[in-house]
Amino acid sequence: MIERREITQKELNNIMMEDEGHFFDIKGKSIQPSKLQETFIAFANADGGDIYVGIEDKKFSGERLLPFSSMEEANGVIATLLEQTVPSVENVSIEFLIPPAGGYILHVSIPKSPKVHYTAGGECFIRLNAQKLKIKGERVTSLAYSKGATPYERVPVDSVTIDEISESEILNNYMSRIETNMEKSTFLRKQRLLSEKDTTLKPNVGCVLLFDENPQATVETRCAVKVYRLRTTEKDYKREHLPEMPSTISGSIEQIILKTIEKVRELVDGASFYDGDKLVTLSYPAEAIKELLVNAVIHRDYSLNDDIHVKVYDNRVEITSPGKLPGYVTKDNLYDERFSRNPNIVRLLHNLPNPLNHDIGEGLDTVRNELKKAGLVNPEFEERGNSFVAIIKHQRIASIEDVILEYIETNPEAIITNKLIRQLSGEDDINKVKKALQKLRGEGKLILVDNGVRAFNYKYKKA
Questions:
Q1: Torsions phi, psi of 154, nearest 5?
Q2: Ranges assigned E (strand) in 212-277
Q3: pLDDT in tens, 12-66
């Protein structure tokens, strides 16, 4: 049963004034159902969105609100969207909105789908900003990889043989640890690490990443990790902020994880900045960083030609992993949903004694809990272009004022600047820190070092 509900004039105005974009579109009721289907699958193939049918766009010269006269009038549209899309889009929400003047606006809410969808005519579209883009060939294949609908880890690799993998010491070590005496080629086949190409079984990408001696030379796309130490808090860094060249970490997936954890631990343990002549050190929970590194390596999109980038700034750690979130996972449901882009890699690593990876989802809970224990704010997550970024900020759960007071109690002779407090608290907003300093000055807890300087150059000390 499709719901219907009355809306206020204010709600209607908000819908009509909304700009069409990546998650929102309006269409007149005269649109051909087949054309609307293109927009419908474009949303499902991208990040989801909402379509309102019965409203003309802002360029329309006449009356924009032209709703359906009855719900039955929209039956053809609904049938085309729900029954003629290949495959059907699941969990679509449909309702009729009744504006004050009467009639029915069809509201279709489309979720981000874990599948690739096509129109009844076999065409594929994806939403990009306010446009629907028709894609085909390799772009459809890339979309399937990015969603996890077609695991890239199953793609056969021509440049390596089953015998070469079978002779790998990494495979020998793995089979010894899980205590199996199975014949190696049988083990690889049963674990879905071999894929057929031209009637011949070949090691696939997942197999190479797990057990090849040098997968970075074997797989066609880049699959290493680059680790940077950046002596700055700014997003746009310069060469002089790099005290040393980034480290490139190669090897099998398990080796990469272990070596990256060790390298990042080394940099994080030395994470510090100078307050005048005083060295201020930062402290991060190692377990939280480890969990995010593991997630980046095992859940990244290996079809994309880029490495994982780990950047240790003066006030945060950023881990950038190629590929957007897979399937129906979004930033909003990240802690609750479970979807693995590389299920074989995840499963085989998890089969080891004392595995590096938790069950899907548990690792993020660990990150949040470890940061809370350390008195730091929750991790932040961003999608930047075609990458997913996890950020651990050295930002205290305590207020900026508390951070300042704690610092001057520990360092009563210290000279305090806005920049120093931003580094100590992890708060990037210069104005928020300015207000906190002014508040403590007003309360008589801080005094200006020099009243004669411009406000931008104010320095404070304990009153």
A1: -90, 0
A2: 225-229, 247-249, 272-275
A3: 999 999 999 999 999 999 999 999 999 999 999 998 999 999 999 998 989 999 9
Q: Which of 259, 252, 260 is nearest to 165 (CA)?
A: 252
11: its two tokens = 């709600």
Run of H or E residues at 218: helix 215-218
Q: Cβ distance 175 to 187 under 8 Å? A: yes
pLDDT, tens digit, for every residue of 79-108? 999 999 999 999 999 999 999 999 999 999
| Strand 387-393 versus strand 131-135 pairing type | unpaired
Which amino acid is located at 116 in the chain? V
Q: Which residue has tokens 């801080």?
A: 446
Q: 107 has which bridge partners?
A: 52, 95
Secondary structure in 3-state letters for 385-433: CCEEEEEEECCECCCHHHHHHHHHHHCCCCCECHHHHHHHHCCCCHHHH
Contact 125, 143 (CB under 8 A): no
d(CA 370, CA 355): 19
State how beta strands 225-229 and 308-312 pair: parallel
Per-residue buried b or exposed e for 160-176, using 16+ beta carbons within 10 Å of the residue's own CB: bebeebbebebbeebee
Residue bearing the bigger pLDDT, 236 or 187? 187
Peptide bond into 343 cis (omega under 30): no
Count the helices and strands in the chain (H runs, E runs).
16, 19
The span from the CA of 2 to the CA of 153, in Å, is: 41
Burial class (CB in 10 A: 0-12, 13-18, 19+), 19: exposed
- Rg of the Cα trace of the chain? 27
Residue 22, phi then psi, degrees to nearest 5: -65, -30
- The number of angstroms, rounded, from the C-alpha of 393 to the middle of its chain's C-alpha atoms is 16
Question: What's the predicted TM-score (pTM) here?
Answer: 0.75
Q: Which residues contact 213 (CB under 8 A, 6 or more apart)?
A: 168, 169, 170, 252
Q: In this predicted model, what pLDDT tens digit does every residue of 421-440 receive, in sequence order? A: 887 777 778 888 898 898 99
- The Cα angle at residue 115 between residues 330 and 152, in degrees rounded to 5: 90
Which of 228, 260, 223, 257 is closest to 243 using CA atoms? Answer: 228
Helix residue ranges per DSSP H, 322-379: 343-350, 362-373
Specify the 3-state DSSP secondary structure of 338.
Answer: coil
Q: Report which secondary-structure segment, H or E, holds 297.
A: helix 286-299
Partnered with residue 311 across adjacent β-strands are: 228, 318
Helix 430-442 × helix 400-410 angle, to 10° = 60
